[in-house]
Write a structure and sequence with these properties.
Bound molecules: flavin-adenine dinucleotide
Low-confidence stretches: none
Number of strands: 22
Strand order of the largest sheet: 5-13-14-17-12-20-18-19
Strand content: 25-35%
Shape: globular
Structural class: alpha+beta
Mean pLDDT: 93
Number of helices: 13
Radius of gyration: 22 Å
Length: about 450
């Protein structure tokens, strides 16, 4: 099999690169490969009313990790990755705006609001309590509409892009000015240009490949914390105004930064299964019929290791494993119990006024999270209580652990090309991004660069 361009990974990068190639009618033979299933096949296991029992693979297949996500597209360079450091702030923001425009064009109803933190009162109120609100614009498509949009993009690219699903690229060899891709289906695919877009799930494979091809890459951070769930009324004044608030707080005890992440008004807390690890996450629907009575968000503390231990992800994995060992899967604890130093038993959970949206094991997070992270999280909850009274209620639920792994940062130039000509590394797999908007923007960027080469 011979192609001009092969895209490895059909996540946000792969989807948006394919979209842009199709739109520009790039004069090249293009293949999109993913180890997971095509979108319709992924969805055949998806039960949107009862997601916790579904057998759906949330990390792999068309749409990647974003397909069944909350579909929250943040247009910002303040979080969600460092794309601006590679391609410049202006271009990064322009590309993210473009991604938003494309998504809105595919959205049937076109009625979703673009929330913005610009000039909102919350910023001033938060500052009075040492909480810093990061500037961003956000459009929330919700899991339901996000899926519909992806289905339409899938159809759109079909006329231009060849696809191969349930197929893992196991190795890539450079031969003269071509690449030989060895697949799990025992095929050899020859390509002139390759876009590595393996996302977080392709992290270890990409690092291994970089080592083999002598492409420099650098250790990244890992974020560890909990998912907080509380009655939606407590954060309503905030979520109604900005939808998602990224608040950063410096703790007095350790001077560490703790931040809120991935806020889901009226959402669900869900388990995230990746390889042999179970962690916690959250999402919400736009369809009000599928709303819960709670809001959930993560509280995260970043950890970076340098010497002698460098592998930040391994540290995160160990903590997640400890939580899985004690709880069988995800642990849940009432904030009141955590502060009093006692386990949340089944009996205490039954008396809890906040009804959990995830069926997790009642337990004790202090046996899992290191003291420093736990102290940081508790201090942050009391800080949030000042702008959203009720956050530090006894019945606020904490699920653990939430871990955000970041891939090693692959050395690329301003075109996202590695030192090997024709080999691009983009999106979460490159360690440069960790959000839908920025990863999608990477896809558009690389497609435009390659389009110039083939449509010259
Ligand atoms: C539950 C969940 C909710 C999220 N919610 C949000 C949100 O609301 N907003 C937001 O901004 N971000 C969110 N994120 C993060 C977001 O999904 C990612 O930042 C984004 O998907 C990254 O896109 P990507 O293309 O780089 O990688 P991915 O989307 O991870 O796609 C990578 C693809 O590559 C494939 N692959 C990997 N290795 C190989 C290989 N060797 N051969 C073939 N295929 C391979 C995988 O199967 C996968 O489909 C969420 C993530 C999760 C897990």
């Amino acid at each position: 099999m011979e192609y001009d361009i092969v895209i490895v990974g059909a996540g946000a990068v792969g989807v948006f690169a394919s979209y842009e190639f199709t739109k520009l009618n790039t004069n090249a033979k293009i293949l999109l490969i993913d180890k997971g299933l095509d979108i319709e096949d992924r969805l055949s296991h998806y039960d949107k009313n009862n997601k916790k029992n579904s057998r759906v693979d949330i990390m792999h297949g068309f749409g990647g990790a974003g397909a069944l996500s909350d579909g929250k597209y943040n247009i910002t360079t303040n979080f969600g990755g460092d794309l601006h450091k590679t391609i410049g702030k202006e271009e990064a923001l322009t590309l993210m705006e473009y991604v938003d425009e494309v998504l809105c064009n595919f959205d049937e109803k076109k009625d979703l609001k673009l929330f913005s933190t610009g000039d909102c009162d919350l910023k001033t109120i938060a500052l009075r309590h040492n909480l810093h609100l990061l500037d961003a614009k956000v459009r929330h498509f919700g899991t339901d509409r996000n899926i519909e949009i992806l289905k339409k993009i899938r159809k759109y690219i079909d006329k231009k892009i060849d696809t191969k699903f349930s197929c893992t690229v196991e190795d890539i060899t450079v031969l003269d000015d071509k690449f030989i891709l060895q697949t799990s289906t025992n095929e050899q695919i020859v390509a002139k240009d390759v876009i590595l877009a393996g996302g977080r799930s392709g992290s270890k494979w990409i690092s291994k490949l970089c080592t083999k091809l002598d492409i420099p890459f650098f250790s990244n951070k890992v974020d560890i914390g909990v998912r907080v769930e509380l009655p939606a009324e407590i954060f309503k004044h905030i979520t109604d105004e900005v939808y998602e608030s990224k608040l950063v707080y410096q703790t007095k005890q350790y001077n560490d930064l703790v931040r809120t992440f991935c806020m889901n008004p009226y959402g669900q807390v869900v388990m995230e299964k990746s390889d042999d690890l179970i962690t916690v996450n959250g999402h919400s629907f736009t369809d009000k019929k599928l709303h819960s009575e709670n809001t959930n968000f993560a509280l995260l503390v970043s950890n970076t290791f340098t010497e002698p231990f460098k592998n930040s992800n391994e540290y995160g994995e160990s903590i997640a494993r400890l939580s899985n060992m004690l709880g069988g899967n995800v642990l849940v604890q009432r904030f009141g119990d955590l502060v009093k130093g006692r386990r949340s038993s089944e009996r205490r959970m039954q008396k809890c006024f906040t009804r959990p949206t995830l069926n997790a094991t009642a337990g004790d997070l202090s046996l899992v999270l290191p003291k420093r992270q736990l102290d940081n999280i508790i201090e942050m909850i009391f800080a949030l209580d000042k702008i959203a009274p009720g956050t530090a209620n006894e019945d606020t639920l904490l699920y653990g652990v939430e871990v955000k792994f970041y891939n090693s940062k692959v050395e690329v130039d301003e075109n996202l090309e590695t030192k090997i000509k024709g080999l691009f590394a983009a999106g979460d797999g490159s360690g440069i991004t960790h959000s839908l908007s920025q990863a999608s923007a990477c896809g558009v960027k690389v497609a435009r660069i390659l389009n110039e080469k083939y449509n010259r």
